[in-house]
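As the work plan foresaw, the team has encoded backbone shapes as discrete tokens. One protein thus recorded appears below exactly as we store it.

:::
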Amino acid sequence: MPELPEVETTRRGIEPLICNQQITGVVLRVPKLRWPLDPHLSELLVGQRVLAVSRRAKYLLIRLEQGSLLLHLGMSGSLRMVPLQTPAGKHDHVDIHFADGQSLRFNDPRRFGLLAFFQGTPDDHPLLTHLGPEPLATDFSGTFLFQRSRKRRLAVKPFIMDQRTVVGVGNIYASEALFRAGIRPDRAAGRISLTRYEELAWQIKEVLLAALEAGGTTVSDFRQADGRPGYFKQQLQVYGRDGLPCPVCGQGIVKVSLGQRSTFFCRHCQR
């Protein structure tokens, strides 16, 4: 699933290409993705100009003169810019045409994505109101994690993956940050010290920034707006490396299921 670095990479790729552009058409090739698509989307969007493209957690917000588009890439979605007459592929479900002859194309093989138009303040949208802080913002810190985790028996990995705790830290980057911080993913969140949470918060930021620099991580479906994959996969130290030697101690990386998600760690380096 595209996580924060992949969504932010997408945002950075499409914003300069669609900002200040006028929408001239909308093509819906399926009636629904995760939820039904508004059949009146063309009437709502055509003629409007894009003012900005922002991100909240794993959601993209395309801000228009009247209202906004809320977009989530789901488990396998991607956005790319193509010339207007480019033939659609099997999983190219939505096109938004612009006056400059380009089209923003939403590809989603599993159809778990989301595209919805709404009026009002984005922070008041029901999908956004419950979200925790951004991990790269100043209000996210080890102290914050420590205070939120007190008396929590939940394992630390699902704790930091909970969007109410902090947004955008998905499975890949949670595994990598915990490895760098030397913390076992199955340790109870409430039993981790402030000092160790300070290290974990730092490593979450460092992993996300490194992934952003590499254009995200392509495991299977993700592509940047120009069609290139994300290259952070080459820097992964534990995720997807079960059975391979730990890059620090040489012992084998293990894979377990935690919170119904595949989890990778080193029993020797993480405690």
